[in-house]
């Protein structure tokens, strides 16, 4: 992983550690100076162990959520690294012809025309690094895709990676482990090959079994000598290994190779650190030969780290609300702890303890809880992450069609950051809470009387006016900078700051809080278009969502808390007529109403999480649903296929006609795409060319496709017009939406290096953009004019610049032959069966075919699993709410011991006392669920409404997964009741005589 | 139960508390009988077992020996649920520190025992307001306890104790937290209710002024009843001391 909250992660770690060391240093100095205060604070830990456990649980949740997000990032990074390592093994650099496709095993389609070169280049490479101690292995090699058939079990694998290297130069590239120990490619006589475990499993063969290998020509026969384990065969999947000379004979390329593999000194990952030095030495030797050196391992590691960062960013963003709820919980825990000890604190103050001493005592106590809680939280976070990545592995496997080996990883760096952030955040909240509770009227505290109201008109006025002024400044900053976040925060701050001003003007508390609360909810829930109508165009990102969400919940909670009597009155009128329930209901509702602070805080916590969960799940679900449309996803085709780069199908129509045993009657359209790795740069943008791909779409594809466009250049009226223009006029192109700039930033994944500029994808006009395309191998150049941008609903497989095949043939003759095929079928033809028939007929081409429906089903299934995972992660935050209810209930039993005694004395039975406590929790949990769901759905609707106005999403509709939400909330409600059950049982067991004995 | 039979009868009642390794015999075989409509004060020094006796007689606490019979029914024979229901229907309680529900208004506090006894909400409210009227606090019905004075709070407690028309009212130091003027008013109120409504009162108190208003004073020492005095005898003793 590379960044956290936009800061390089190592810098972040250093800052956190310095802050942690500074904080611990200050605490240690204070502790040494005031040892009595340390003893006073820390002794409370052992006094009530159950309470201590509850507090530790409460404090650790924020850390848990952070550790989960960070460890998920670590694991995904490590897993992707693992795949790269399995594919590259000890190889750090690949020498190939310029422009060769080196991105192993991603995307659909392969580059063709990648030239072979003389294997003697390996000697030059060796000579270039000789005596440097940088490299411990150089070997000439061939890595190609071939189809393999096992006649006896009648199994066929259309795409197996053929790996061939010089057996005498395999030192430094790891060991090939056979079933009975290390083996060598040199052990293989003619016709014998090694299969790796994956290939052996997929083909269902073992030692001695026969194989047929299709590499473009007639089938070659081979016998499996051994099933081996080897990292570095150019794939993490199925591979066939043989000596270089045998491969050259099989492929008809004597003395030629496709790569020279270079292994740097060091292990599979540390060797990449030497890449720059190795490349510097090789480049002058290779350039004159028309060859290039690709830092494959380093790029793969960087890509893995970027992917890990994207996952981490996703989960930290979605976890923000839960972390905010966790902070509220810490605050609540300590304020309640202080309330419990108010009498003690009052006496301490009366006998001469200074306020600062109280703050210190509490901070020492908090630090003791905190150090423990953050540790448990960080470890628990790692456990949650492990569970989450197991689910993710299942989701991604369904897309890839194979198992994804999850390499679970917990880096000490991530745990240190989560721990440090958890400790610092908690200590800050504890210190603030301690300061808040230290402000007391000593006489009232000693007698445990309510704090007398102190008129603070001046402070209110200053706070109110300062808030309004700062809010207006933020509004100004937002409007001038076209940024939604400062604008919305500014408006919210103005509304919040109006409360003290209204109170000073004599407006009743209820009216002041309700009006400002409602204004917050309504204004922040307004459709974005209305904001833009008032403030002009504004750019949004996830911080807008987070800040608006927090303020919406504040507004809603104010409104509820200051009008709870109305709610309670209505409930009493509704259920109060049931005489058995009346006294219990009355008590259960009176307490939350009387304790506005703790009720409001708990409501805010619960509502915040429910709100996020519903918003996230409903909007995600709606977007997922939008992809479940074969017309949108398949671009008007029913089956898609690809062949290996070595065996393109240049003339598909003829190939279909000549395909053995294939009935083509059911195929109404057969279309092709070629795929060419290039370097691209926007003309006039002043940026260096970046690696990208260009696709050549044949006439049939362009004529038939229905892939939608999110943006159409001026002068064109529809997507059809654009596709027709691309077909009829050379040099026109369409590009995918990932390279288009956006005003609103809601993406997490790493974007391609090649980017366009000068317009926004999500708003405003789009004039045609010229892009210069350079083929590094042929050194040819082509300028294409981009006249359309694909819709965001188009599949990943369409990424790249898409122009006509005629354009590519003209610009780069012979370089781009079709390796991707699309088929439209007649009504009634089963696409899955047709895909299987195509694979069989084009086995010699290594064709892999799938129905669009299957691809979409797999993708949808993965998306749904991932969405459920997000639900689960967000649901973690609900534990905060549950813990809060547990804390409040436990505290209430202590606080109300005498009152429970009175209730029992006047006739409350034990079950009635239990029911009172359970109903109190129910009031908070159910109110939060209802309000959070309502607000969440409203915001999700708002998001969908706004997105419908964006390119690509005209048909988007709000889909609410009611069943999922109902199950989640039912479970959470049950757990919330369970958390209250123990205190409720304890309350019901209070013996009235003992409870009433003391004041 | 005939009118002459005691409404409360304690026979050889014993109660022991265990605090860690220490055993405290709080009640050491108490025998006592209280007639219907009688107002009895239990007095004695701190720790003599007064409150423990009240708790045991009212069923708030269990006994370790002996028998307690209330309105002809042995308390030990009742389940916790039956005792709770009995308290709700037939008993009222007044405590030294009022013990009102701080989150409920005066009228809501008073109506709570009625709601527990499943009286219909509107009827409960009417009777609660009547009870508050009886103690002179009808106009303070919508105030929460924090907004009332000590005397007012204790009157609310008394209203709560009699709202369900109980047979017995148990009062534990009802004037302990009040000044002398408020204390006198509260005792007068209880006496008036005793006389006018025939309520049986058992009052635990340190205050001789409270004792003087009752029919009988039971004196306790070290968990035993050491003396019982009719009101007249008490007056004579007091007069003798004054002389």
Question: What's the short version?
Answer:
Chain A is an alpha+beta fold. Chain A folds into 5 domains: 1-87 and 298-451, no CATH class; 93-294, no CATH class; 455-562, no CATH class; 564-630 and 856-999, no CATH class; 644-846, no CATH class.
What is the fold's blueprint, element by element?
The complex is a heterodimer of chains A (999) and B (243).
Chain A: E1 3-4, E2 7-8, H1 9-33, H2 35-42, H3 44-47, H4 49-88, E3 93-97, E4 117-118, H5 121-129, E5 135-150, E6 155-165, E7 176-178, E8 181-183, E9 192-196, H6 197-203, E10 210-214, E11 220-228, E12 239-243, H7 244-251, E13 256-257, E14 259-264, H8 275-286, E15 291-294, H9 296-340, H10 342-350, H11 355-400, H12 412-438, H13 442-446, H14 457-481, H15 484-504, H16 509-525, H17 528-535, H18 542-561, H19 564-575, H20 582-594, H21 596-627, H22 630-634, E16 639-642, H23 652-658, E17 667-682, E18 690-697, H24 699-704, E19 709-712, H25 719-728, E20 732-735, E21 769-774, E22 781-790, E23 801-804, H26 805-811, E24 818-825, H27 831-841, E25 848-851, H28 852-895, H29 897-905, H30 910-948, H31 962-988, H32 992-995
Parallel strand pairs in A: 6-12, 9-11, 18-23, 20-22
Antiparallel strand pairs in A: 1-2, 3-14, 3-15, 4-13, 5-6, 5-10, 5-14, 7-8, 9-12, 10-11, 16-24, 16-25, 17-18, 17-21, 17-24, 19-22, 20-23, 21-22
Helix pairs in contact in A: 1-2, 1-12, 2-11, 4-9, 4-11, 4-12, 4-28, 5-8, 9-12, 9-21, 9-28, 11-12, 11-28, 14-15, 15-16, 15-18, 16-18, 18-21, 19-20, 20-30, 21-28, 21-30, 28-30, 28-31, 30-31
Chain B: E1 8-19, E2 22-34, E3 39-43, H1 50-58, E4 65-70, E5 73-74, H2 80-90, E6 91-95, H3 106-116, H4 121-134, H5 150-162, E7 168-172, H6 180-197, E8 200-204, H7 208-211, E9 216-221, E10 224-230, H8 231-242
Parallel strand pairs in B: 3-8, 3-9, 6-7, 7-8
Antiparallel strand pairs in B: 1-2, 1-4, 4-5, 9-10
Helix pairs in contact in B: 3-4, 3-5, 4-5, 5-6
């Amino acid at each position: 992983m590379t960044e956290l909250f936009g800061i390089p992660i190592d810098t972040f770690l250093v800052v956190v550690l310095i802050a942690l060391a500074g904080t611990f240093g200050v605490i240690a100095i204070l502790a040494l100076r005031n040892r009595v205060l340390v003893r006073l604070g820390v002794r409370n830990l052992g006094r009530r162990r159950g309470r201590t456990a509850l507090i530790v649980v409460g404090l650790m949740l924020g850390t848990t959520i952070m550790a989960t997000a960070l460890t998920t990032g670590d694991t995904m990074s490590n897993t992707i690294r693992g795949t790269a390592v399995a594919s590259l093994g000890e190889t750090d650099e690949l020498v190939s012809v310029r422009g060769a496709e080196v991105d192993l095993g991603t995307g659909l389609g392969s580059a063709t025309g990648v030239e072979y070169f003389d294997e003697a280049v390996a000697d030059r490479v060796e000579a270039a690094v000789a005596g440097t101690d940088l490299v411990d292995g150089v070997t000439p090699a061939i890595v190609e895709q071939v189809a393999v058939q096992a006649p006896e079990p009648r199994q066929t694998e259309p795409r197996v990676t053929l790996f061939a290297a010089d057996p005498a130069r395999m030192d430094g590239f790891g060991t090939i482990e056979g079933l009975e120990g290390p083996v060598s490619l040199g052990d293989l006589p003619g016709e014998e090959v090694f299969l790796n475990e994956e290939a052996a499993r997929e083909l269902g063969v073992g030692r001695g079994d026969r194989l047929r290998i299709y590499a473009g020509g007639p089938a070659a026969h081979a016998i499996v000598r051994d099933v081996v384990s080897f990292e570095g065969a150019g794939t993490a999947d199925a591979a066939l290994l043989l000596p270089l000379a045998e491969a050259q004979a099989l492929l008809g390329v004597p003395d030629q190779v496709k790569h020279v593999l270079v292994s740097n000194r060091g292990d599979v990952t540390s060797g990449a650190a030497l890449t720059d030095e190795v490349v510097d030495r090789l480049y002058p030797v290779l350039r004159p030969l028309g060859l290039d050196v690709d830092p494959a391992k380093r790029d793969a590691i960087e890509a893995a780290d970027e992917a890990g960062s994207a996952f981490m960013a996703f989960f930290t963003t979605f976890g923000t609300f839960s972390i905010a709820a966790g902070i509220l919980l810490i605050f609540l825990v300590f304020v309640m702890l202080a309330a419990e000890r108010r009498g003690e604190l009052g006496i301490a103050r009366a006998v001469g303890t200074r306020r600062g001493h109280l703050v210190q005592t509490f901070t020492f106590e908090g630090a003791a809880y905190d150090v423990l809680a953050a540790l448990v939280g960080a470890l628990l976070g790692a456990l949650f992450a492990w569970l989450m990545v197991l689910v993710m592995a299942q989701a991604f496997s369904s897309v890839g069609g194979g198992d994804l080996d999850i390499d679970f990883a917990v880096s000490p760096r991530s745990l240190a950051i989560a721990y440090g952030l958890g400790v610092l955040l908690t200590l800050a909240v504890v210190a603030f809470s301690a300061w808040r509770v230290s402000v007391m009227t000593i006489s009232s505290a000693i007698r445990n009387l309510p704090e007398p109201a102190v008129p603070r008109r001046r402070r209110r006025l200053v706070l109110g006016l300062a808030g309004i002024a700062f809010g207006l400044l933020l509004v100004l900053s937002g409007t001038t900078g076209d940024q939604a976040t400062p604008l919305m925060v500014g408006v919210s701050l103005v509304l919040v700051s109006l409360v003290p001003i209204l109170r000073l003007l004599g407006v009743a508390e209820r009216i002041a809080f309700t009006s400002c609360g409602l204004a917050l909810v309504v204004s922040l829930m307004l459709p974005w278009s209305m904001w833009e109508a008032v403030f002009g165009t504004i750019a949004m990102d996830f911080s807008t969502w987070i800040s608006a969400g927090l303020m919406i919940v504040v507004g809603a909670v104010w409104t509820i808390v200051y009008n709870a009597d109305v709610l309670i009155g209505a409930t009493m009128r509704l259920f109060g007529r049931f005489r058995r329930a009346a006294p219990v209901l009355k008590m259960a509702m009176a307490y939350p109403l009387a304790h506005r602070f703790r009720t409001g805080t708990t409501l805010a916590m619960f509502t915040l999480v429910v709100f996020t969960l519903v918003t996230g799940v409903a909007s995600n679900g709606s977007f997922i649903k939008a992809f479940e449309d074969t017309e949108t996803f398949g671009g008007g085709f029913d089956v898609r296929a690809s062949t290996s780069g070595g065996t393109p199908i240049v003339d598909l129509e003829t190939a279909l006609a000549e395909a053995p045993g294939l009935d083509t009657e059911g195929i109404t359209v057969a279309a092709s795409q070629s795929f060419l790795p290039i370097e691209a740069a926007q003309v006039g943008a002043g940026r260096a060319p970046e690696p990208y791909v260009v696709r050549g779409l044949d006439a049939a594809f362009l004529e038939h496709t229905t892939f939608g466009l999110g943006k159409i250049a001026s002068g064109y009226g529809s997507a059809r017009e654009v596709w027709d223009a691309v077909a009829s006029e050379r040099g026109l192109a369409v590009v995918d939406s990932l390279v288009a700039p956006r005003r609103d930033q809601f993406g997490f994944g790493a974007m391609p290096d090649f980017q366009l500029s000068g317009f926004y994808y999500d708003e405003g006009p789009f004039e045609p953009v010229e892009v210069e395309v350079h083929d590094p191998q042929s050194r040819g150049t082509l300028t294409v004019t981009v006249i359309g941008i694909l819709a965001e609903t188009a599949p990943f497989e369409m990424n790249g610049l898409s122009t006509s095949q005629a354009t590519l043939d003209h610009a780069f003759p012979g370089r781009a032959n079709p390796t991707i095929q699309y088929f439209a079928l007649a009504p009634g033809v089963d696409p899955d069966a047709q895909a299987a028939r195509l694979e069989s007929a084009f086995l010699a081409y290594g064709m892999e075919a799938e129905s669009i429906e299957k691809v979409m089903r797999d993708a949808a299934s993965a998306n749904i699993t991932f969405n459920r995972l997000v639900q689960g992660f967000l649901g973690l935050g609900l534990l905060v709410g549950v813990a809060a209810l547990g804390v409040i209930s436990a505290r209430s039993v202590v606080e109300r011991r005498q009152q429970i005694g009175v209730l029992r004395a006047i006739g409350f039975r034990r079950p009635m006392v239990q029911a009172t406590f359970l109903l109190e929790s129910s009031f908070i949990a159910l109110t939060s669920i209802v309000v959070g769901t309502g607000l969440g759905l409203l915001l999700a609707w708002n998001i969908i409404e706004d997105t419908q106005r964006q390119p690509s999403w005209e048909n988007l509709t709000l889909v609410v997964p009611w069943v999922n939400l109902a199950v989640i909330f039912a479970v959470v409600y049950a757990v919330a009741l369970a958390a209250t059950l123990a205190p409720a049982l304890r309350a019901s067991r209070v013996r009235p005589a003992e409870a009433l004995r003391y004041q | 139960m005939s009118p002459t039979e005691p409404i409360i009868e304690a026979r050889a009642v014993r109660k022991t508390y265990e605090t860690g390794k220490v055993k405290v015999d709080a009640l050491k075989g108490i025998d006592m009988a209280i007639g219907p409509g009688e107002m009895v004060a239990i007095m004695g020094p701190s720790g003599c077992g007064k409150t423990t006796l009240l708790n045991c007689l009212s069923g708030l606490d269990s006994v370790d020996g002996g028998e307690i019979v209330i309105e002809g029914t042995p308390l030990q024979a009742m389940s916790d649920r039956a005792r709770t229901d009995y308290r709700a229907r037939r008993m009222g309680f007044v405590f030294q520190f009022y013990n009102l529900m701080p989150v409920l208004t005066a009228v809501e506090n008073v109506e709570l025992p009625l709601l527990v006894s499943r009286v219909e909400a509107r009827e409960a409210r009417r009777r609660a307001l009547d009870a508050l009227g009886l103690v002179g606090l009808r106009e303070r019905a919508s105030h929460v306890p924090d907004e009332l004075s000590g005397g007012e709070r204790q009157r609310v407690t008394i209203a709560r104790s009699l709202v369900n028309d109980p047979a017995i009212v148990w009062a534990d130091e009802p004037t302990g937290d009040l000044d002398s003027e408020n204390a006198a008013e509260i005792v007068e109120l209880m006496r008036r209710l005793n006389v006018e409504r025939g309520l049986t009162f058992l009052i635990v108190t340190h205050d001789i002024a409270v004792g003087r208003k009752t029919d009988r004073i039971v004196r306790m020492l070290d968990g035993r009843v050491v003396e019982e005095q009719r009101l007249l005898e008490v007056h004579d003793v007091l007069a003798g001391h004054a002389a």
